[in-house]
């Protein structure tokens, strides 16, 4: 398993996000409902994972934004014909596409949509070494997608 909550006393502080807030709202919004403004999501990500990095809070999120710009998961999937269009895709094809582009298998997580009838793509996790510059194999990830059926819906957003 990946380390979590490494420095529990080092809590997220919105004041340390100066200069990043507007970009974070666009690039790392909360898709949970009610969505709010993302601060709760960012706080959770920092407290759980960021405190295990070598970076300070501002540097951690700045690096995350740069990595997001560098590794465009949506574009990787689109290049394999997998689009956020509400259609169903093979879990194997999704993971294979990402593995081919990243060099390592990512974590793929699914949940059920509002109707409770359709299993859908919920989250993709990629692991980086602690400096944030290199993709690594995620320790402790199961081989199959977590909570995923063999065919999953890629919801439009």
Automatic annotation (TrEMBL):
InterPro entries in alphabetical order: RNase_T2-like (IPR001568), RNase_T2-like_sf (IPR036430)
Lineage: Eukaryota, Viridiplantae, Streptophyta, Embryophyta, Tracheophyta
UniProt name for this protein: Uncharacterized protein
Pfam families assigned: Ribonuclease_T2
Family recorded in the similarity comment: Belongs to the RNase T2 family.
Keyword hit for Lyase: yes
Domain of life: Eukaryota
GO MF entry, a single one: RNA binding
PANTHER family: RIBONUCLEASE 3, RIBONUCLEASE T2
GO biological process annotation, one example: RNA catabolic process
Alphabetic keyword roster: Endonuclease, Hydrolase, Lyase, Nuclease
GO cellular component term of the entry, any: extracellular region
């Amino acid at each position: 398993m990946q380390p979590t909550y490494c420095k529990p006393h080092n809590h997220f502080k919105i004041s340390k996000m100066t200069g990043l807030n507007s970009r974070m709202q666009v690039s790392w919004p909360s898709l949970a409902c009610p969505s709010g403004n993302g601060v709760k999501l960012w706080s959770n990500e920092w407290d759980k994972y960021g405190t295990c990095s070598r970076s300070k809070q501002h540097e951690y999120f700045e690096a995350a934004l740069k990595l997001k710009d560098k590794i465009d998961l949506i574009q990787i999937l689109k290049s394999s014909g997998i689009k956020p269009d509400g259609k169903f895709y093979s879990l194997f094809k999704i993971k294979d596409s990402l593995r081919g582009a990243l060099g390592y298998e990512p974590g793929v997580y699914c949940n059920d949509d509002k109707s409770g009838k359709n299993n859908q793509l919920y989250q993709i996790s990629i692991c980086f070494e602690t400096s944030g510059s290199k993709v690594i194999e995620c320790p402790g990830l199961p081989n199959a997608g977590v909570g995923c059926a063999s065919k999953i819906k890629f919801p439009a957003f």
